[in-house]
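User: What would this chain look like folded?
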Amino acid sequence: MVSGPAADAGARLASVVAREYPDRGPAIFLNSASWGLLPKSSAEASADLTLRRNRADGFEESELGVIQRRCRSAVAELIGGDAGEIALSPNTSFGVNLGAALLRAGRPGTIVVSEGEFPANVLPFLALEPEGFTVRIVPCRPDGLPDEDSLIEWAEAPDVVAVAVSAVQFATGYRSDLATIGRACRDRDVLFFVDAIQQVGVAPIDVRAMDADLVACGGQKWLCAPWGSGFTWIRPEVQERFPPPMVSWLATSAGADFGDMLHYSMNWRSNARKFELATLGVQDYLGLARSIEVLQEVGVHTIREHVLTLHDVLIDWVDRSNAVLVSPRDPERRAGILTIGVDAVSEAADALRQRGVVCSVREGALRFAPHVYNTKDDIDAVVDVLDGIS
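Assistant: Here's the prediction, encoded as structure tokens.
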């Protein structure tokens, strides 16, 4: 019988999942890299605020500010930042585009990205090329995974102004060594931008330890939050260095006083809120705050160990089959995604779908993304399907 901290963590996970996911239906959801299932209390809180809005006395205006502060604080605690460094934003693309806009305010140069990056982390930088910037796409290693040594070598080039990477690659599930890349960027005053949507919520992340300048993340995937919720973390030195590229009246210090707004002041707030746009989908950020609180109740380290245990069942199947493990075998190089190459991937995907398994096909391979609410029985069912067609 297992006892001690591991047993306590397992019991806490089971208790939270039973409370927050009481009925997931007969389907097996393994697609958290696309969107996560909302905790019951998160969905209810977001819906309740929406319904209360229809009543004349449904809420006090001050509650909206309280919700936003709650969300910034929850995000900051999760990623090792400070609430004043969090700009609430609707998706990852907002943060990536903000990074591109900040670059536009400086000198043109080379922006380094890896081959295999998700389009949202490349296209905003390619759009800068007519303005004198160059995007250097560094080829992957022969195994199809990012070549971090080459990324770091390019970060040392004299004309490089930024390096942009995903914390976890969407297709392979490769987890980057953000601290090493970030250190190389910091040593050379190169801006380091991180798309963190495939890591935050399923594996620990520390924005200070990885020397990032800007971290963009949507809430709809591993954070199990409503669509349209997310955040951008911005290093204080970057906040001070750049003005906001888009102007919101709430981004100014005068925006804090709704009773005296006609001074048209251009004095920016002294924190990341100067990069936020008005008006925010407050009900979605209430959902994001509550979802993060639920995940924190379980503990991200516990979630990660749980997910890696589920990965092991699929990896064991790969080792006794003709399939290929596309994701790294080293668990330190994985977060939540496990991608497997199989023959006749369309046939395999159809068979899984007929069995009620919700997963994805990405770049010609099966992508599985289990989360806190999945069980070994879920993965055993997947293995049964794959055994039946292999």
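The CA atoms of residues 142 and 149 lie 13 Å apart. If you want, I can go into more detail on any region.
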